[in-house]
Design a protein that fits this description.
Blueprint: E1 7-10, H1 16-26, E2 30-35, H2 55-61, E3 65-68, H3 74-84, E4 89-92, H4 98-102, H5 106-112, E5 117-122, H6 137-143, H7 165-188, E6 192-197, H8 198-204, H9 211-216, E7 234-238, E8 244-248, H10 252-261, H11 268-272, H12 280-290, H13 295-305, E9 309-311, H14 315-318, H15 322-326, E10 330-332, E11 338-340
Helix pairs in contact: 1-7, 7-8
GO molecular function: transferase activity
Region (Disordered): 348-372
Biased composition (Basic and acidic residues): 359-372
Length: 372
């Protein structure tokens, strides 16, 4: 696998850091999860369990090793520093300043191992006026303006997102940064220190919605913008049986194909003028048309037209979807418990994830510091 021979020490909890190291573990890295005494990673206790671990913990920590260390104790701190001398990557998600107080900051690790790639993931980054504030995903989506665009009802009030985007994006940005640093290390022999801010990650994700703000200095109106409600062909419609279809392609070929099929090619110019209130007659027409047939009937019809669309699945439906199953995105461990596969597919050296999740402090013998 691509990352065989890479050792990762992961001191992070919850989602961003564990997602980063999970992806590396799925592709061959040895990931040693350093957990706090007592409860370990809080993810061990979040949500439902269908086996020895919660689904949350399993989804982010399979294939890793677990070692409990109390970094307030000299012996345990020394054990971590010994491990760091053998590691390629170090991931932590403390608030800024905590790692230094504990004696496990980049300077301390680099003194022992100049090749180490040190990745810090925090809410606001290592500097700035908010650096010491605590925050989870929802607060960061709010501060960056992303939440103001997530209007799900006619009252115009923001809705809580279904996915923790700041968590996911910062984990993926951290992964990209770590891999870039490892690649550069091949030429320089030197590691690096990476500062990933969840807030920065959300700001960077706004690129496709900032047109009104950058061009005119105003807040976008979600119900009039291209991908948040202002386009008839980027919208959700209810079907006769209570199902829902999402139209998701506004290119002219898709607009013309469906409107010709429905006998209203004259509506196409309204859609091709761009998003806005002028598309309401098309939205009303499509809403009525979709209510005349079932979801299944529409899916069959739209597939023949080569139109961008998706039936709105529940999560159980999504994990039974034939495309999801055909791509092998649902894996089963020895106990028959489901896992989400890695979405990264290589022709050569594909990932072969271990589906076993570690018990708390299962790999205590790693304190000796030698590679297995």
């Amino acid at each position: 696998m691509k990352l065989e021979g890479i050792r990762v020490l992961d001191l992070s909890n919850f989602l961003p850091g564990p997602l980063l190291s999970l992806t590396m573990a799925d592709h061959g890295a040895e990931v040693i999860k350093i957990e706090q005494p007592g409860e370990g990673d809080p993810g061990r206790h979040i949500g439902l369990s269908d086996g020895p671990h919660t689904v949350f913990f399993r989804n982010h920590n399979r294939g890793k090793k677990s070692l409990v260390l109390d970094l307030k104790k000299d012996a345990d701190r020394a054990a971590l520093l010994e491990l760091a001398a053998t590691a390629d990557v170090f991931v932590e998600s403390f608030r800024p300043g905590v790692a230094k107080r504990l004696g496990v900051d980049y300077a301390a690790l680099r003194a022992r191992n100049p090749r180490i790639v040190y990745c810090s993931i925090s809410a606001f980054g290592q500097d700035g006026p908010y650096r010491d504030r605590p925050a989870h995903d929802l607060a960061l989506e709010a501060l960056t303006g992303a939440l103001s665009l997530n209007v799900g009802t006619d009252d115009g009030k923001p809705a809580i997102p279904g996915l923790p985007l700041a968590d996911l994006l910062s984990g993926m940005n951290g992964l990209a940064a770590v891999l870039m640093a490892l690649l550069r290390r091949q030429a320089t022999g030197e590691g690096d220190c990476i500062d990933i801010s969840m807030m920065d990650s959300m700001v960077a994700a706004l690129r496709n919605v900032v047109g009104p703000t950058f061009a005119e200095g105003r807040q976008p109106d979600p119900k009039q913008e291209r991908t948040t409600g202002g386009g008839a062909f980027y919208r959700i419609y209810e079907t006769r049986d209570g199902g829902r279809i999402a139209l998701a392609g506004q290119e002219p070929k898709f607009v013309h194909a469906l409107l010709r099929e429905l006998g209203r090619p004259d509506f196409a110019p309204l859609c091709l003028q761009g998003p806005g209130a002028h598309q309401k007659p098309v939205m009303d027409f499509l809403a009525q048309a979709f209510r005349e047939h079932t979801r299944g009937e529409w899916e069959e019809r739209l597939a023949k037209l080569d139109v961008c669309f998706g039936g709105v699945n529940t999560l159980p439906e999504a994990f039974r979807d034939p495309q999801v199953l055909a791509r092998g995105m649902v894996l089963r461990d020895e106990a028959g418990l489901p896992h989400i596969a890695s979405p990264i597919r290589f022709l050569n050296e594909p990932g072969t994830p271990s589906l076993r999740s570690p018990g708390l402090d299962e790999h205590r013998d790693l304190v000796r510091g030698s590679r297995p």
